[in-house]
Every structure is written in C-alpha cells, then in structure tokens.
Amino acid sequence: MNNEHSLKMKNLPMGKLIFQMSLPAMFSMFIQALYNVVDTYYVTKIDITTDYNMIALGYAFPIQILITAVALGIGTGTSVMVAKKLGEQDKENASNIAKTGIILAIISAIIFFILGFIIVKPYMNFMSNNPEIIKAGISYLEVVVIYSAFSILEMVLSKIFQSTGRMLPPMFSQLLGAIGNIILDPIFIFSFNMGVKGAAVATVISQGLSFFFVIIIIIIKKLEVDLNILKYKFHVSYLTQIIQVGLPTMVMNFIGSITNIFLNKILMTADPSETANGVLVSYTKLQSFVFMPVFGLNQGGVPILSYNYGAKLKDRFKKAQKILYLTAFIIMTIGFLIFQFFPKQLLNFFSPSAELLAMGEIALRKISLCFIPAAIAIITTVTYQSLGKGFIALMMSLSRQALLLVPLAYFLSKIGGINLVWYAYPLAEVIVAVIFTLLVVNVSNNAFIDLKVGE
After folding, report:
1. Phi, psi dihedrals of residue 123, rounded to the nearest 5°
2. Per-residue model confidence as pLDDT tens digits over 211-268
3. Quick one: DSSP state of residue 219?
4. From CA 424, how far away is CA 430, in angstroms rounded?
5. What's the pTM?
6. DSSP secondary structure string for all residues of 203-256
7. 3-state class (DSSP) for residue 72
8. Which residues have CB under 8 Å from 383's CB, separation 6+?
9. What is residue 191's DSSP assignment?
C-alpha cells in the first residue's frame, strides 16, 4: 500500500505539514469566498438605482447555506473517519467509509432536486413583502437548488482527497469554478439578458466544471482509498461514524442558515425599508474573505489532528493545535483591522445606496469585533471534531448561533434598535470562546488517556 500521502502527517515537521496541508485548502476557501461575492457584484450592476437585487440574493443565501451544510457535513464526517482509519493502517474500512459518503451525497442531491420545485416560492414570499425582491429571489434560487448536485458531489469528493493528504486537486477544482463563474456571470446576466437568473445559471455551470475536474483526477490518479462503488460493502457503522463526526459541521452550517433567516426577520422589523437587510448581505459576503481562509485552515488541520489522534501521537497533536490557533488568530486580526479602517471602501464594491453605505459603515466596524474570538472558537470546534467529540462540537455550534446570536440580536434590537443589534455578533463569540476553550484542554488530555486504556 502506498502510504506516502498519509504518512507525511506522522513524519513531517508540524509547521511545514500544516503549511503544506492547509495552504491549498485556504486558497480553495478564498476562491469559494470569491464565488460568493462575484454573483452579488454583477447582480448589483443590473440596476444601480436600487439595492433590491442584492437583497434578493441575500434572502437566497440561507438556502445555499443549507445545501452547503449537508455537503460539508457529509464531507467532513467522511474525511475525518477516512483519515483516522488510514492512521490506523485500515485501508479497507477507510475505502468503505469514503464510498458511504459518496452515496450519501448522491441521495442528498436527489432530495434537493425535488425540493427545488416545492420550497422556493413559499420561502421567498415568507422572507420579503417587496414583489421585486421576491421575483428576483425566486428566479435565482430555483436554478441553484434544482441543480445543486454538482456542488454537493464536488464538496464531498474534495473532502475525500483532503483526507488522504492530497490538497491540490480541491484547490484547482475551486479555482476552475471561480474563474468560470467570473467569466460566465457577465455573459449570462448581460449578454444573454437573463438578469438575476443568469447569475444562477453561471454559478451552476461553474460548479459543474469543478465537479467534472474532480472526477477526471479520480480517474487518472490512484488514491489510497478505493472509490469503486461496485465493490462497496455497506455497514451501519460507516453511516453512524460519518453522521456522528460530520453532524456538528452540518448543524453548524444549518444553524447558520436558520440564524440568517431569523436575523433578516429581526432586521426587517427594526427597519421596514429593508436597508439593514442589505447591510447584512454586504457583511455576509465580505466577511467570507476573512472566515473562509480560517475554514480552509481547518480543512488542512482536521486530517492532521485526526491522523495523529488515531496514531496516538499526543505531542504532535498538541503542537498542531497551537499552530492552528496562532494562524487563525493572525488571519482574523488582519481581517478585523481591515474592517475597522476601510468599511466604506469594502461596501462600495457592491454599488450601495447612500442609505445602505451610511448604515453599513457603522455596522461593519461593530460586527467585526467578533473576528478574534471567532478564530479561537472555530479551531476549538475542529479540535473536538478530530477527537470524535461530536456532541461537544455540536453544543458549541448551537451556542454560537441558535442559543446566543439570535436571542441577543432580538433583545438588542428591542432596547437599542438597528444601531445596537450589530453587537450581538461579538457578544456571542466571546461567550462561546471563553467557555469551550477552557474545556478543550481537559477533553483532549482525557481522550489520549482513553486511547492508552484501550490498548
């Protein structure tokens, strides 16, 4: 068996290993952030006299997050367990777990295809009272949801690559999709005069390019895991392991979707003009350039932590933790400074109205106070996942959003209106970072003790 890619997680110096494993993933996630922004950028150019089209894409975003939640949940659960089995030198179970993840992705894609014909119109009517926003949102969402299979399958297959230490194929896959989206967006939106729907068509085609690129790499490159589904042996434990480990990621993103919906409703109540909702859209798109590289860092870090935990290498596990925390802190600090000093310049990227620009400049400075505590919280969540402590990671995700952010936003909107509501973000992140990071040291120590007892 060729162990070149997995054994480097055991033998390379940790700093170099994290750099090699994380940099491609960080670049991939940066490209994903570009994906998120490109559609919004071009859509705002359709009619620069109004923010309606941008707000429509903002209302569509929670459904896109939901699709991503399912794909990342399956992909993360599969990636962690495959990496752990490879660390234990168990190629057969690693291969069957990978195949289980692919089958789950196919089932999910079929479900979203059906839901695309059912939920889009009721959802947009629930989100807005403005007919123009509703119409634009429906035309965009129907295409994105019905043809989400490319996105789901590409994400899961990329995670399997990452679990074996191969980080470049996912990076090039994302790059190909992003370049495709940048080229195709103006063509479908303006040249073909499809408007907002053209942005959705360009996105789906670009996702298809990424998917087929990954398939081609699988065909021409031999992985450490066998992905031939015809040789698949199903076992309930494969399914439960993927769900147990991947559920926190899925729930975290799913909660992100629900949270975004509630926040939009809270903001609409506080500001019936829906300008505040446009600010939320702008922030959501812009912050992805800060958060996505940290999530990319996680993608490189999870296989390393999982492998060294499975291989019972506590010192390397701890060293990886420290480097991950430090790197995330640096990234988020840079992002915080940019949002503090250049909020107006960031917002101008979306050709905002004067009202949105004035409100957004203040909001971005307040919300970005959450960046540094969020860095700590994100790496702590990944640590729990790599140890198989899915329930704790799940509770952490719930606390960051469902249990704290939404209630805080609602409470602050009632006592201080729009100007105070933005502080809900930093308050929620600080509380979670303090509580769960204090616990993670004992949890990781006890996890390695349990490994020794089980020998």
Report:
1. -65, -50
2. 999 999 988 887 889 888 878 878 888 899 899 888 877 877 888 899 899 999 999 9
3. H
4. 10
5. 0.83
6. HHHHHHHHHHHHHHHHHHS--SS---GGG----HHHHHHHHHHHHHHHHHHHHH
7. helix
8. 305, 321, 440, 444
9. I
